[in-house]
Design brief:
Blueprint (H helix, E strand, L loop, with lengths): L4 E5 L3 E2 L6 H20 L2 E9 L3 H9 L4 H18 L6 E4 L3 H16 L3 E11 L4 E3 L17 E10 L5 H10 L4 E2 L1 H12 L6 E2 L1 E2 L15 E2 L1 H6 L1 H4 L9 H6 L4 E5 L3 H14 L8 E4 L2 E3 L2 E2 L10 H8 L1 H11 L6 E3 L1 H31 L11 H22 L4 H22 L1 H4 L6 H22 L6 H9 L36 H20 L19 H5 L3 E11 L7 E6 L4 E6 L7 H4 L3 E5 L5 E3 L2 E3 L2 E2 L1 E2 L7 E2 L14
Parallel strand pairs: 1-3, 1-12, 2-3, 3-4, 8-13, 12-13, 14-16
Antiparallel strand pairs: 5-6, 5-7, 7-9, 10-11, 14-15, 17-18, 17-20, 18-19, 20-23, 21-22, 24-25
Length: 655
Amino acid sequence: MTQKKFYVTTPIYYASGNLHLGHCYSTVYADALARVKRMQGYDTYFLTGSDEHGLKIERNAEKANKTPQQFVDEVVSGMKDLWKLMGISYDKFIRTTDDYHKKTVQKIFKTLYDKGDIYKSTYEGLYCVPCESFFTESQLKDNRCPDCGREVELTKEESYFFRASKYQNQLEQLYLDNPNFLVPEARKNEMFNSFITAGIEDICVSRTTIKWGIPVDFDPKHVVYVWIDALTNYINALGYLQEDDTLLQKFWPADVQIIGREITRFHVITWPILLMALALPMPKRVHSHGWLLQKGTKMGKSIGNGFNPYILVERYGLDAVRYYLLKEGPMLEDAGYTSERFITTINADLTNDLGNLISRTLAMLEKNRNSIIPVPSEYEQVDNELIELLNGLQEKVITAIDNKSNVQLALDHIFNVLRKANKYIDTVAPWALAKDETKKNRLDTVFYVLCETIRICTVHLQGFITVSPNVIFEKLGITDDKLKSFDSARKFGANISGLKTNKGENLFTRYDLEIEAAFLDGVVEAKKEVKEEKKVEEVKLEEVINNETISYEEFSKVKLKNAKVLACEKVEGADKLLKLTVDLGYEVRTIVSGIAKSYSPESLIGKTVVVVTNLAPRKMRGIESNGMLLAAGETDDNISLVTLDKDYKSGSEVR
């Protein structure tokens, strides 16, 4: 029997700067789909990557005094670190600067040119640099880019054009024949009615005023326009027009392509037309999710309002962040991120519904059955009601995933069972049964039902959260991988009797909403300080050398504590300064330090440093610094921070 296949992609992220929580949503979403399909036994291929060419990157690299390649190498390194942090199980990471990709793009361009689908002309129009997109005047909103709201530039140059208008009828028919090609429905209607039926225009596919890109090999003064470069990554990663195209033959067309709504037009108009011109099949579904909003505004790198996922994972754990994104994220429409909503979701779902069920069950089992899962006897009506839910759970989860990739609905089904299990405890009252010796068999059955419920729900949660399931299996005493498999959770009644459980520590922390909201909002405000400071004056850090001795009492006035670096970025206009956000345990502070020539911002995130905490605040480049990092070194480019060789709680005294 041929193994079923599943190919899922994320957008390749533009390497113009560090990614934020909004980018994490697309990738965690695709990762969840890939994990569920692997559990089902599908041969799964999960692709993500980076889009590394274009004018914006060229300009950002120049500002950073780096070559474009050096610039994107640093950004991509940060991307990969972030995906490791977020538990992303991708099979391949494609870079548009990869040699095989560049050669394939040139082959595609030449193929389309040879068949007459690409021709040379002159382009004069309005161009948005951040979006790498051309627009007509009628498409602008208040004379600004309709996608990002920024100003556009008037551009006139010789260009190659893709004859997209030739495929107008085919594109319309694609939508009519495949109602689920683009979801959600509202996005499909918008694309079809506002862009497709209005008439497809030929597309500019080369530039002469941009140097950082893939050259047209038969006309080297032209650089391939970024969208043809970027969009073809989905087939180039599989070996299209390469010696070994085994993966292409196996996995294309893609089953689901996850994108954010700002790039919908390119993925459901330009991309299908390119595939038609290349005589390749269409992806089965493009899922265009909404934006993750911060105070009503889309999170964005250039805007500077994107929340740093490192801070959330460090403080609340990976599963809390993944669960929040999948449960509350913008799967269909825009979704607002707030600190209160984040904490409330963790407390209600993970701590109450899941964590509390496990704690209650294993505590009672420890007290009454020496932590051993007993053998059940006869089931009563209240048991059968819960068992019926468990027996139908897997089909509901699979249907939710297969039907428009609805991860939110899949999680709703799982947590509905968990909530019913908590109510089951209240109904059967195990503590009362334990007092009646004649109810011994009944209590055994209740304990078995609860442990089997936890096991089945945990098996299904493996597709969405990545750390806690293994901890829960350990608590249940499960070491046999068969009991962790998707197939084992299809029906209630696995042989888990006799396993010795271990209650251990609580799985999730219950957070104080007021305290945590204040902490998270404080981080956001600290980040805004640098973004809002546009014109600042460089302050040269003074080297203070004092050979005089001081008394112990004088030295004891200096307060040293360890701190965790939550976020770090360069100070605009200063080549030596970094602005760090550090967690002292009891508060978050901003510190400006002259170590930029020795440390990149990305290398410091998550690092433990030693901070002088009772220095008077000092403004550098308009930013108030509240502390000093301890470091050694004789020159600016050879500084080494003082660190600790053991892990201590943030805010511990250094003496």
